[in-house]
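Today's session is about reading a structure prediction critically. Students often jump straight to the picture, but the first step is always the sequence itself: look for stretches that repeat, for charged clusters, for runs of hydrophobic residues. Only then move on to the predicted structure, which in these notes is written as discrete structure tokens rather than atom positions. Here is the chain we will use throughout the hour.
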Amino acid sequence: MKHLVLCIDIGGSHIKASVADPRGRLVGPVVRHDTPARASPQHVLGVIGALEKDLPRYDRISAGFPGVVRSGRIITAPNLGTKAWRGFDLAGHLTRMLGKPARILNDAEVQGLGVISGKGLELVITLGTGFGSALYRDGEIMPHMELGQHPMWHDETYDQYLGHAALLAKGPKKWNRRLERALGFIATLLDYDRLYIGGGNVKTVSLRLPKNVKRVANEAGITGGARLWDAVHDRLFDAGKQRKTSQRR
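Below is the predicted structure for this chain, in token form.
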């Protein structure tokens, strides 16, 4: 049976959604809405509910979230308001609200599923409101590292050094020089085979990139959501179910 997936991309600036088939091919329009200024869980769920009404039927739900996610629960949400989101069961709330099973991961990890080759060590970074990152080995998602919250230069994190606020404050030319410096650090740190750069501000990247570094369309944040239901990723969500069962015992 070909299951269709409601794919949701939650960002610091916009929330986008569409419906895709298991291979990530869209079968409906991409709908979007500004992220609420007060981006509490209730406000974000309200936006998702409104967007969903304009889309075709679906069987499953996936969502990419800008922060650390474990077992469908939000651990951190640095660009939305960590305090309001901490411990929030986003997967459970989406399932109850929309009546379909839901899987949630970090937004950069979801975007990466839409672009990686599945061979070797591959890194995805996203340049948007903040700085997202995801690492894969032979197509397998590695343990999440919140690189955006790591110190980058002097007392600034990657989020502060390369986020949207820095782009506005420094201008594209200086921001690209910052990006070039960061890419050098990241290459030394991870020695990846391929790097993919996505996010809303990828259009501002003017650097001459190495052959193993590629810009990718921002829509991958949606199309990658369908791949979240590939059987190879079941272990990520089965482990969460096992932990919850053991806690109940």
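Discussion point for the tutorial: The mean pLDDT is 92.
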